[in-house]
Amino acid sequence: MRFLLIVALVCVACIARAATAPVVGLDVTGVIGPATAEYVERGLARAQRENAQLVVLRLDTPGGLDTSMRAIVQAILASPIPVVGFVAPSGARAASAGTFILYACHVAAMAPGTNLGAASPVSIGFPGAPGAPAPNEGSDKGKDESKRLPDDVHERKAMQDAAAYIRSLAQLRGRNADWGEKAVTEAASLSASEAKAQNVVDLIATDNADLLRQLDGRKVKVAGGERTLATGGAAITVFPPDWHFAALSVIANPTVAMILMLLGVYGLIFEFGHPGFVFPGVLGAVSLLLGLYALHLLPVNYAGLALMALGIAFMIAEVFVPAFGSLGLGGVAAFVIGAMMLVDTDVPGYGIPTSLIVVLALVTVAFVVTVVRLAVAARRRPVVTGLRSMIGANGEMLEDATDNGWASIDGVVWRVRVETPLAKGRRIRVIGMKGNVPIVAHGEGAA
C-alpha cells in the first residue's frame, strides 16, 4: 500500500512538473542566413538547458542560403526537445528554405492566410519562371512539361539533391513526400487549408494559444524517444535575438563583408606606406579579419576573391612600373569581375549591387594611387634628421676664416670648414659634411 502511494505521488509530481515545464519561442523572420542558423542553434541549446518541454519556431521567411537552412534542419533533427514549426501570423510565408525547415519540424502548423512552397533552388530556373531554361529540345510532346529538368548537369544535380532531401524529411515525419518533391521541381505552393488537406502540415492554429491548446496531450517522437506534450494553459517564452545575432547579421551581409575586407586592405596599405601611424594598421587588421570571417560564413567563390586581390596588386604595381596604364586598367577589370563573382548565390538579399562594385573599384583606384604615390614621394624626399640633414642649410660666418672657423647655422654655433676664405658676417650654405664638421661655401654661389 505504501509503495502504491509513493508511485502515485511520483506520478503526480511528474505530471505537475511536465505541466509547468516552459515552452520556448524562437522567431525566424526575413532571409535565412548564417546569423539565423546560429540563433536557432543557440535557442535550441538554451531550451535544453532550461528543460523546456517544447520549442515553437515561428516562421515568416522568403527563403535563404542552402547551407544555413541545412544547419537549422540538422539542429532540429538532433534536438531532444520537440520543435513545432508555426507559419504565423496571418500573411506570413515559409517559402523556399522555410519549406524544408517546416518539413523537418516534429510538428508543422500554419496560421490561416499563410502559405508555403516554392522550394526550388533559386540559382536554378524552372519551367514557367522568369529566366527559366528553355524546355529540352526534342522531348516528346506527350510528356508532362512540368516534370522537365534543367538542361545543365550541375543544375539537374542540385535540383535532384534538393528533391531527395525534402522527400527524406517528409518520410521521416510522415508527411506528403510527393508534394514536397513537387515544391522543389515545380516550385509549387499551398495555402494553409490546402496544406492541411494534403497532409503537408499537421495543424491549423489561429494564434499561439490555439496552437498550444491543440498540442496538449499530443505524443511526439524526438531524438531521445517519445514525449507527451502538456501545453494546456502554458505560455510561450520568446528568446529574442541577442547582440551576437545582430552583429553577425550585419557582418555576414556580402556587401558589408566586402567593404570590411577592402577597409582592411586600405588600412594595411596605408600603414605599410607610412609606418608609425599604428591606428590605420590596427583598424585594417581588425577589419580584414572580420571581412574574411564573414566571407567564410557565406557561399564565396574563391576565384572571385583571388581576382579582387590580383586587381589590387596590379593597381599598386602601376604606380611603380611604367606600364602606361595597362596594369591599372587590368587591375580595375580584375577587381570588378572578381567582385561580381564573389558571392556564389542568387538568393535575394545576398547579392552585391553592380553600382556598389563600380564605386568601390573607383575608390580603390583613387586610394591606392594616392597613398602609394605619397609613400613613394616621402621616400624620395631628402633626409630631415641627423647630421646629413644639415646639407643645404643656410647660416652666417661669425669670424674671418681661411680654412676653419666658427659660424651660426640655423641658429646653432658650429665649427666649420671653408672651401674658400670667408669674411665675418658672410652668408654661407652647407654643401657637405666631413665627419661631424660642416663644409660651407658662399651662400650666393652654393649649388
Uncertain residue ranges: 12-19, 124-148
- Provide the residue-averaged pLDDT: 81
Assembly type of the chains comes to: single chain
Rg, alpha carbons = 36 Å
* Quantity of strands, as a count: 16
The share of residues in extended strands comes to: 15-25%
CATH architectural type of the largest domain: Alpha-Beta Complex
CATH homologous superfamily title of the largest domain: 2-enoyl-CoA Hydratase, Chain A, domain 1
Per the principal axes of the C-alpha atoms, what is the gross shape? elongated
CATH topology of the largest domain: 2-enoyl-CoA Hydratase, Chain A, domain 1
Keywords:
447 residues, alpha/beta, 2-enoyl-CoA Hydratase, Chain A, domain 1, OB fold (Dihydrolipoamide Acetyltransferase, E2P), five-stranded mixed barrel, 14 helices, 16 strands, 47% helix
SSE inventory with pairings:
Elements: H1 2-20, E1 23-29, H2 34-49, E2 54-60, H3 66-78, E3 83-87, E4 93-95, H4 97-104, E5 107-110, E6 115-117, H5 153-173, H6 177-185, E7 189-191, H7 192-197, E8 203-204, H8 208-215, E9 219-222, E10 225-228, E11 236-238, H9 243-251, H10 254-273, H11 279-297, H12 302-320, H13 326-341, H14 354-380, E12 394-397, E13 404-409, E14 412-418, E15 427-434, E16 437-442
Parallel strand pairs: 1-2, 1-11, 2-3, 3-5, 4-6, 5-8, 14-16
Antiparallel strand pairs: 6-7, 9-10, 12-13, 12-15, 13-14, 15-16
Helix pairs in contact: 2-3, 2-9, 3-4, 5-6, 10-11, 10-14, 12-13, 12-14, 13-14
Structure description:
With 447 residues, the chain is an alpha/beta fold. The protein folds into three domains: 19-136 and 146-244, Alpha-Beta Complex (2-enoyl-CoA Hydratase, Chain A, domain 1), CATH 3.90.226; 253-380, no CATH class; 387-442, Nucleic acid-binding proteins (OB fold (Dihydrolipoamide Acetyltransferase, E2P), Beta Barrel). Helices cover 47% and strands 17% of the residues. It has 14 helices and 16 strands. The chain has helices spanning 2-20, 34-49, 66-78, 97-104, 153-173, 177-185, 192-197, 208-215, 243-251, 254-273, 279-297, 302-320, 326-341, 354-380, and strands at residues 23-29, 54-60, 83-87, 93-95, 107-110, 115-117, 189-191, 203-204, 219-222, 225-228, 236-238, 394-397, 404-409, 412-418, 427-434, 437-442. The strands form four sheets. Strands 8-5-3-2-1-11 form a six-stranded parallel sheet, with helices on both faces. Helix 2 (34-49) packs antiparallel against helix 9, helix 10 (254-273) packs parallel to helix 14 and helix 12 (302-320) packs antiparallel against helix 13. The longest helix is centred in the C-terminal third of the chain and has 27 residues, at 354-380. The protein is elongated and about 115 Å long. The N and C termini lie far apart (119 Å). Mean pLDDT is 81; it is low at 12-19 and 124-148.
